[in-house]
Amino acid sequence: MVFITRYSKKTDWTVLFALVIALILPLSGFAENVSVKSIDLVQEEDNFTLNTEFDIRLNPTVEDALNRGVSLNFLAEFELVRVRPYWFNETLVTTQFPLKLSYNALTRQYQLTAGDSHGNFASLNEALSELGHIRAWKVAERLSLKKGQNYRVGVQFLLDTSMLPKPIRLSVLSSNEWTLTSGWHYWTLAP
User: Fold this and answer.
1) Alpha-carbon gap, residue 157 to 161, rounded angstroms
2) Distance from C-alpha of 92 to C-alpha of 80, rounded to nearest angstrom
């Protein structure tokens, strides 16, 4: 079967304009919703500990899901890489710190689980403020860093969408409303 379409040299500007809007619109919805307030890597006798503070803002879709009983799992990720100028970089440490935020409709409280500690909060703002504080996170033990060597340290905080219920995970693929991340923040460490 042969199909014949009419060719026109005239540019259809409305189609071109709609295409540009369709490409730009998803990018405008991707605002920074997790920002870094402070990161402090402390070298102690035998280990490195990390203290961080993130400012976390939930968009209406995620906040509504939380208030309807969907638990939100977050991850703080850390990496330490030895930078080698003439060879591939060597990853020395990669670790994750899981956090879970949920809402209990019976008690009307937000519950935060961070590692082995648990806390209840009366308001979402209090829970988000505490969620963004990670204190004394032991990220590396007995790691000897060489003087004169450069190391790259990276930290990021994100919503773990792989832990969402399956029906929501399907909508994650087509929407960026569930993309809550600080992105990687890197700095150089030279002991």
Assistant:
1) 12
2) 6
Give per-residue burial for 100-110: e unless 16+ CB within 10 Å, then b: bbbbeeeeebb
Q: Look at residue 37 and tell me whether its pLDDT is greater than 50.
A: yes
CA distance 101 to 115: 12
Q: Residue 145: its pLDDT value, please?
A: 82
The sign of the torsion formed by the CA atoms of 186, 156, 37, 49 equals negative
Quickly tell me which residue has 């809007």 as its tokens: 21
How would you classify the pairing of strands 109-114 and 34-43?
unpaired
Please answer whether residues 49 and 139 qualify as being in contact, where contact means their C-beta atoms are separated by less than 8 angstroms: yes
pTM for this entry: 0.79
Per-residue confidence (pLDDT) for residue 149, from 0 to 100: 87
Residue given tokens 């994750």 in the structure block: 96
123: burial class by Cβ within 10 Å (0-12, 13-18, 19+)?
exposed
Nearest to 79 by CA among 143, 160, 8, 11: 143
DSSP string, 29-97: T----EEEEEEEEEE-SSEEEEEEEEEE---HHHHHHHHTT--EEEEEEEEEEE--TTS--EEEEEEEE
Torsion of CA 135, 158, 152, 91, to 10 degrees: 100
